């Protein structure tokens, strides 16, 4: 009779923290841009080899999509909180722009907005991934400025 072991995958157990790796990748992509960060840069920064990288993230794009998700939760401008119904549209839009300015000058290593940088990168799939986040933010702002109702809002409201 043969028994099979069940449990972990073959090979050594992971010795790196995937969440820490995503944070590190976010800093690298933010500082250099998607195109300028290679898998070799990422594996060196994480202290792992390429097979471990691919086992953990699937691809550079797979990691990037996880970075965008993290960025939306930790680093992106909180559009929903700033576009408030209890203040004029113009005041809310000013608050969004001021928050953007604060964030972009606070980290001199960052090259602006991680999402906007991704929208302009050379990799088509990464552009699409970043473009989805950009389109969602843009739609929120457009919805706030001109909701689909007969009354709508005026910029001075």
From TrEMBL:
Gene Ontology molecular-function annotations: DNA binding
For the HTH tetR-type domain, which residue ranges apply?
15-75
List the PROSITE patterns hit by this protein, alphabetically: HTH_TETR_1, HTH_TETR_2
Specify whether Transcription regulation is a keyword of the entry.
yes
In terms of SUPFAM superfamilies, this protein maps to: Homeodomain-like
Q: Which UniProt keywords are listed?
A: DNA-binding, Transcription, Transcription regulation
Taxonomically, the superkingdom here is Bacteria
DNA-binding residues: 38-57
Q: Name one Pfam family in it.
A: TetR_N
Q: What is this protein called?
A: TetR family transcriptional regulator
């Amino acid at each position: 009779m043969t028994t099979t072991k069940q449990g972990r995958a073959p090979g050594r157990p992971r010795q790196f923290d995937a969440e820490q790796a995503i944070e590190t990748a976010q800093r690298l992509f933010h500082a250099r841009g998607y195109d300028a960060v290679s898998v070799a840069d990422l594996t060196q920064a994480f202290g792992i080899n390429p097979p471990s990288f691919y086992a953990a993230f699937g691809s550079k794009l797979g990691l990037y999509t996880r970075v965008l998700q993290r960025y939306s939760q930790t680093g992106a401008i909180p559009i929903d909180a700033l576009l408030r119904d209890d203040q004029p549209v113009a005041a809310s839009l000013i608050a969004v722009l001021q928050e953007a300015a604060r964030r972009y000058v606070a980290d001199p290593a960052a090259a602006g907005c991680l999402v906007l940088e991704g929208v302009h990168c050379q990799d088509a799939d990464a552009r699409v991934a970043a473009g989805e986040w950009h389109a969602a933010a843009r739609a929120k702002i457009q919805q706030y400025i001109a909701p689909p109702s007969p009354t709508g809002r005026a910029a001075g409201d």
